[in-house]
Specification:
The complex is a heterodimer of chains A (233) and B (104). Chain A is mainly α and 233 residues long. Chain A has eleven helices and no strands. Classes of the chains: A mainly alpha (233), B mainly alpha (104). Chains A and B meet through helix 1, helix 2, helix 3, helix 4 and helix 5 of A and helix 1, helix 2, helix 3, helix 4 and helix 5 of B.
């Protein structure tokens, strides 16, 4: 029992520095969601039902632009597609757990929870109570996200539009994308997605984002396949 | 579509992707091509939001020094490369945008 609690705390402590960055992001989400026309209750519920910050930002903007529901759902799907990477990476470490644990930990598997937990598994290896570390990281992030969304919703009405809060989204993404741009196929994927997003911006139903993301993924995959087949020769 | 249905479907889709390989592990071999393709998802999706976000203020392409979001975005790129810190990057970009808006 003690070991479980100490693992849980270790997870919370590992997550703590990340929470400092998540809190303002949640504040901004809350304010932005309110400004996009969502009711305080539905803005808060999006934080617990979808529970994926960047897709909530994008969804709030699409709701503001009155995009069709199906497009919003598809866009949430595309923005969160990267979570399949985390799922693939975590699968081997929690394979032995009962299904209810797998379901709970999957719900908690965000960017920030993954970042802290994968380091723990890779550095300390799999221990009998390791999943409590995962739980500690996940629950502390979940609570921080709910609390900061709520505070953002509460304060949101007081934020003047001249503060350009919506600009926080591209800025956050700049911070996330820069460390990934390490090799040519990835850089080409990023650039082609960006250019297609500009060209397709005025497509109906806000389809541009989905199209741009698919174009980037396609370009990256083709270039990498070409590189690999050259290397094989 | 009702907003609650959008949340529900968006939430189920998100949960489904987080659960996907955790559920499938040991039941089904994940093809290598899937892993390789998934690697391009973050840079593609993030850039597809960044580019219009800084290059199209007011929904119009604007590649000029008069575009404050572009300048603030470039500052954020430099801060991201230098500090590798999300919070510093956001703060620097937001501060730069506010300053440009006040100054010009």
């Amino acid at each position: 029992m003690n070991q479980r609690i100490s693992m849980l705390w270790a997870g919370v402590r590992a997550e703590a520095p990340i929470l400092v960055g998540v809190f303002p992001f949640g504040l901004i989400y809350g304010a932005l969601a309110l400004n996009s026309g969502l009711s305080p209750f539905s803005a808060q519920m999006m934080s617990s039902i979808v529970f994926a910050g960047s897709s909530q930002f994008v969804a709030a903007q699409l709701i503001h632009d009155t995009a069709p529901g199906l497009i919003i759902v598809l866009t949430i799907g595309i923005v969160n597609l990267r979570h399949m990477l985390y799922s693939a990476s975590m699968a081997e470490y929690i394979e032995h757990l009962p299904m209810k644990w797998k379901v709970l930990l999957s719900y908690l598997l965000t960017d920030e929870c993954y970042a802290a937990t994968i380091i723990h598994y890779e550095e300390d290896g799999l221990k009998p109570a390791s999943h409590w570390f995962f739980l500690g990281a996940g629950v502390s992030l979940w609570s921080t996200w709910q609390a900061s969304s709520a505070l953002g919703i509460f304060l949101g009405a007081a934020v003047p539009p001249s503060w350009s809060l919506d600009f926080a989204l591209p800025l956050t993404f700049i911070a996330m994308v820069m460390p990934v741009l390490k090799d040519f196929p990835v850089i080409a994927a990023a650039l082609s997605a960006g250019v297609v997003a500009l060209l397709a911006f005025n497509l109906p139903f806000k389809l541009g984002l989905i199209l741009a993301a698919l174009a980037g993924i396609l370009v990256g995959t083709i270039l990498e396949n070409r590189k690999l087949s050259k290397a094989a020769l | 579509m009702n907003i609650w249905l959008v949340f529900l479907l968006g939430g189920l889709l998100t949960f489904g992707m987080r659960f996907s390989f955790i559920y499938l592990f040991g039941r089904f071999e994940i093809p290598h091509i899937v892993h390789r393709t998934l690697r391009f998802v973050p840079p593609a999706v993030l850039s597809a939001i960044i580019f219009p976000g800084i290059l199209m203020p007011n929904n119009q392409l604007d590649i000029s020094l008069g575009n404050h979001r572009l300048l603030a975005g470039l500052i954020a790129v430099l801060v991201a490369l230098w500090t590798k810190n999300t919070l510093f990057t956001i703060l620097a970009g937001m501060a730069a945008l506010l300053i440009f808006q006040l100054a010009f």
